[in-house]
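Researcher: If convenient, please comment on what follows.
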Amino acid sequence: MKGATGTTALTGLRTAIHRIDRATPVERDRAVDALRALAILGVVLGHWLVTALVADGGALRTASPLRYMPWLTPVSWIFQTLAVFFLVGGHVATKSHASARARGATYGQWLRARTARLLRPVAAVLTLWAVATGCLLLSGADFGTVHTLVKLALSPLWFLVVFAGLTAATPLLARLNPLWPLAVVLHVDVVRFGLGGPAWLGWVNVAAGWLVPYTLGAAWTRGELERPRAGWVLFGGGAVATALLVTWAGYPASMVGIPGAAVSNLDPPTLAVVTFGLAQCGLALLLREPLRRVMRRPAVWACTAFANLSAMTIFLWHQTSLMAVTALGLLAGRLPGLHTTPDSVVWVAARVAWLPVFGCALILCRSAFGVQERGPRRPTGRPSRVVRVHRVHRGPGRAAPGAAPRA
């Protein structure tokens, strides 16, 4: 009986995988979705690996293994993938705006469609943490601990604010040369670090720094980055420039912030993290064709499609998942890799062992709050937007047998 049930479940899974594959329009560039999924995976794993909440008496404080074990710095090079987010975002937004204009849609209609799924899940995060903050403070929790938890939980929102702003400005940025914002970042850092300028000036780079990969995405849409040479120039030039900035100009080697460090490459962005992002964008462009080949496999594509359909939910709730596991773990005492100081290989091994638990917590968050990203269910009998779109792609009378992620 159990064997028959397992066989039926496996058959159903295979059927669903092939339905997703067949429902995807032939002209869709699956490499774009793959790059977005890889960027999400990088951010999530990066935070889970380098963010530690240490139980110190009755309070929790943040710490990073990168501070105690500098030899782990290459981890930040692998998992700090924000530039790829902005590259893909600029590419997709520029492409969709051009398509909307061709259909006769207004700017307002296009912008509402682009930002609705991006911003809907934010309300759920803010509501839950507003309630949780109130409950913690009323229960007498340490104020420093509450501040630490709220800051970590809401830290992904800065990305959405910048991303939404750049998306709204897409019509103005569609033809902007990436060298202009890169020049702004360079001059800000020269004034900041070379001439002793005010520290607040660095916040100009929050917009200018991420504008560089975003406008590279627009250049990709225009067809200016199709040749492999463009990818190699960005990858090689960005890598060399970053190495020179770290070794000769004194920029931190870590591409993420480290608690207690005098300078962070990410908060606000520095020239080093921007040149590092150029190298990442170049590598992403070089990986497009291999990713297209890999994405032809139905099972791999189904996983990628699922990640894209839940992209904002995963991004917004992954820190909450980590903290939920950490808080519940305190009921069993100070657990290695969860509440202890991240200063040894033992901690690293223990933290890696906790990753599946964080993943399970994130799946629960996705089940509870994913509807905010997907939106309300449509009335029965009315075809969904996805099905209608696929009918257009496939011709009249051929309804799509499944669903694929939106651009």
The longest strand covers residues 52-56. Residues 380-407 form one domain. The CA atoms of residues 29 and 292 lie 7 Å apart.
